[in-house]
Design brief:
This is DJ-1/PfpI family protein. With 189 residues, the protein is of the alpha/beta class. The chain has helices spanning 15-27, 88-92, 96-107, 119-124, 140-145, 170-184; strands spanning 4-8, 31-36, 41-48, 57-65, 68-69, 80-83, 112-115, 132-133, 149-150, 155-158, 161-164. A 7-stranded mixed β-sheet has the order 5-2-1-6-7-11-10, sandwiched between helices. A two-stranded antiparallel sheet has the order 3-4. A two-stranded parallel sheet has the order 8-9.
Length: 189
């Protein structure tokens, strides 16, 4: 049986930051579940960079069903965790069930991949203190406030934590995450 990977997200997550790792990890042979506050059709968004805008723009993105509600997740069933960005982490960090899930991966030193605004979740469980991370560059002060050393780079690997800035860095992010994942929980043949 293939190791299972958990993606935690919600409405307004960045479409590419959910669906790219979902497809890439399945391609690699892992079973992947998407968990959200409730089992429902999630509505993702597309963040893009356009000339003349000081920050990204947001447009409606894909919809995708959540496999599980956070309350149904048994973190011990999963080899690794993926935390996409978008606006979802901003409101999800207040969810007590999700914080328990995220904390359990750090308590047991299992691989965690976070991207863009995803580190807002790991910061909410005090998992970034003393670590090196990257995130969407506007989060530099948030990462420092969480006790992390922020670096503006495509990808940062700190033990089993792999972080990246945003979807343009996907190839580097998943390459490094898969290196960590293969060492800790290789997919079956």
């Amino acid at each position: 049986m293939a190791p299972k990977i958990l993606i935690v997200t919600g409405d307004a997550a960045e479409s590419l930051e959910v669906l790219y790792p979902y497809q890439r990890l399945r391609e690699e042979g892992y079973e992947v579940d998407i968990a959200a506050p409730t089992r429902k059709k999630l509505r993702f968004v597309v963040h893009d960079f356009e000339p003349g805008f000081d920050t990204y723009t947001e447009k409606p993105g894909y919809t995708w069903p959540a496999d599980l509600a956070f309350s149904e997740v048994d973190p011990g069933q999963y080899a690794a965790l993926v935390i996409p960005g978008g606006r979802a982490p901003e409101y999800l960090r207040g969810d007590a069930e999700l914080r328990k899930i995220v904390k359990s991966f750090f308590d047991t030193d299992r691989p965690v991949a976070q991207i863009c605004h995803g580190p807002l979740l790991t910061a909410s469980v005090d998992a970034l203190r003393g670590r090196r991370v990257t995130a969407y560059p506007a989060l530099e002060t948030d990462m420092q406030a969480a006790g992390a050393t922020f670096q503006d780079a495509e990808v940062i690997v700190d033990g089993t934590l792999v972080s990246s800035r945003a979807w343009p860095d996907h190839a580097q992010w998943m390459r490094e995450f898969l290196t960590v994942l293969r060492a800790k929980a290789p997919a079956a043949g």
